[in-house]
Amino acid sequence: MDIAQQLHVARAVNFRGIVVGDPLTFENNEEGFVKLLSWIQNLQRLKDLDSTIVGMEPTGHYWINLSKWLDKQNIEVVTVNPHLVKRNKENRDNTQSKSDKKDALVIADMVKNGYYSFVRPTSESFEKLRVLISNRDVIVKRLVMSINQVNRWVDVVFPELRQVFKDVTCKGAIATLRLFPTPDEISSLETLDVMRGWKSLMKRQPGPKKAQLLINLAKSSIGTGQALDAYKFHLEQLLEEYDLAVKQLERVEHQVKEVLNKIPFAKKLLMIKGISEDEPS
To answer: DSSP secondary structure string, 25-40?
Structure first.
């Protein structure tokens, strides 16, 4: 099979590598899948063949639904390495030309020669875990991106903040950025004003020495003094994105823990040093 978003192409060879039947183009839906099954059954009957193995490249995600549908029809599905498909294109016509029909035939040849991997069905719990971990990866990337953007913002507007808080995503730094992000705002405050602000957002606050240091640094900041309204608006949106990513990460990791509790031997695996349910690999 040559897999695509809307139209798939199927070619068939027998166990000797001889092409069997004409190419089939079918849609990526139930009607197309039934058309494929009928095509396979007709070839088996006409050529007196009693078994079928279907190979496809596991590129993207368009192959997943078809492979599961074929498995329900008791047809064995295997996958082939996309890099080997590319390298084997010359076997048919001594050229590196590409077409859906040619790619499907190359894959059929590879399956006939045994160059494939089996697709193993997974349990409900493992399927959930795979989806959740994929979701987590996307969230982590967004979180890292938002943190990088906040770091850039601090470098431009208030670089001295790092002398008070080494990590701009620690609770004290985030609280400061929410309450009074620019040096101009901080330099006009008293120590108690900063302390009250921190107290409104944190159960445990930095001491008065840090508050005074923050004010002193703000008064001599080298950060930009232009377009501060735009910078503050930008920071608000960055913190919204950061908050959303943190919240979503907590939720997805909670779901991961629930699924792990339903998988046999998961607790024993988590006892191995370096493996954690909070940081799935």
So the answer is: EEESSHHHHHHHHHHH
Among residues 63, 88, 121, the one where a domain terminates is: 121
What integer pLDDT is reported at residue 277 of this predicted model?
63
Going along 16-140, which residue ranges are E strands?
A: 24-27, 53-56, 76-79, 117-118
- The pLDDT value recorded for residue 10 is 96
Place of tokens 């004290």: 172
* pLDDT tens per residue, range 2-30: 999 999 999 999 999 899 999 999 999 99
Percentage helix, strand, coil, to 5, in the chain? Answer: 60, 5, 35
Question: Any residues with CB less than 8 A from the CB of 28 and at least 6 apart, and which?
Answer: 4, 5, 6, 7, 8, 62, 65, 66
CATH of the domain at 41: 3.30.420
CA angle at residue 111 from 106 to 112, to 5 degrees? 95
Verify that 93 and 156 share a domain, yes or no.
no
Q: Which whole-number Å values give the CA distances from 10 to 48, 96, 101, 116, 148, in the listed order?
A: 19, 20, 7, 17, 46
CA distances from 4 to 36, 71, 75 (A): 15, 19, 20
pLDDT in tens, 69-84: 999 999 999 999 988 8
CA-nearest of 62, 95, 93, 96 to 79 is: 62
